[in-house]
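Morning. Coffee machine broken again, so started the prediction first thing and wrote up yesterday's gels while waiting. Chain of 281 residues, entered below exactly as on the submission form.
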Amino acid sequence: MRVAIFSDIHGKILLPFKLVDLYQKETGKAVDFILQCGDIGAYPAINNLDKATAKHAQSDRDELGFYDDFTKINQRIKKFLDELNITMICVRGNHEDHDFLDDLEKENSHTNWFPIDVYEKVFVCKSGVKQVLRTENEILSFVGIGRIGDRKGRTEKRFIQDYERKAIKKLLKTSDTFDCLITHDKDDREKNGYGMPEIRDVLDKVIFYYHFYGHTGEPFKHEIDANGITQSIKIKELEHDENGLLEQGCMVILEKENENLTIEIVDKKLTNKLAKSNWKN
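Came back before lunch.
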């Protein structure tokens, strides 16, 4: 099984699918799923944009990619996604329409993840809940934790909610071992005034082999977590730089074969082919 991992796509919903399509064609290696570490930019209505997204959208229409391309059917996009036949499973970030996502989560109370787009290719998973991906030969287990932490006790929906904390507390009692943890925020061990303490609790009390996260604006980073077990990987935001190119570490492949896990940092020689100027075409 191969899983492509991205973070902070900010409305460029189609770009991870196009990168996976390119990767498969360039390498001959099949990808089975996409996991995404939040800040999807899931805004189905323009009037519900948060201030930061509205500001960026004034100079970059890509911020509105969910509204433009994933709320009503575009036959060209539908044909591409149907032929690719891959789903993307996301955690929530802080830049989403959380009222919209809350309504969908309530409507899908019986499932661990739920579709948010018109093509039913983009899903959001519930925080703190065991998730399983299956292919014919492999099973990959993971947990997602969405939104961000807050030291000031604020309850706005971009911050972790009480019902999600309850799910995480239940998770802490498990004896299960998981392949990976997918979060938007990072843990708070560096004591820099930000981070999510619930992520630190999970990493200290539950065994994960990999932890993938985004949000912080830091470059790609790969290190061993403070727990001495988990490989912690900061995924670079899926943003084009001043030269119109994607940065190193914005696409990572997690492969599981015969219970062994390995990662591949996709080379810029590949991602450079989908530059700011041409990726939509």
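The chain has a mean pLDDT of 95. Going to sketch it on the whiteboard this afternoon.
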